[in-house]
Model the fold of this input.
Amino acid sequence: MNSWTTDTPAGPFTVLAKNNTVYASGWTTDLESLVAVIAPALRPHAIEPSEDLGGISSAVRSYVDGDVRAIDSVAVRQASGPFISHAWEVLRKVPAGTTLSYGGFAAKCGKPAAVRAAASACSRNAAALFIPCHRVISAKGALHGFRYGLEPKGWLLDHEARAAA
Done:
């Protein structure tokens, strides 16, 4: 597996990827913390630093430059149970520039009463940005529940809103 880190307005962003597929990503330079969120069966035995991850790096750069849809087609590999895996697929369809409440997200997943399970899908997401859990907010519009803090989440939402306008 390879690692790549780049500076963004929200802080350093690191991606762990193999064969043009993202396994983990987030606003950190701590590789151990990224490996820890990967499903055990998918965790790498070794990580090699990379200066560029090809299409993944290009997509991240384009996203930061304002093409907020550039990340939509990047391949992601995660593993979980059926509901959470489905919820991650649903998140990928939430357009940049929009948000959902946790209840709205649960409803989009086909289980309106499963608000806690929907929140769990966000918290267990290893591929921040590519699986846009940052687009899920409280019913009152408050930001909370982002592994990398509210500052990156706020920047992401503001950046996407500006680009989508």
Remarks:
- The chain has a mean pLDDT of 95.
- The longest strand covers residues 11-18.
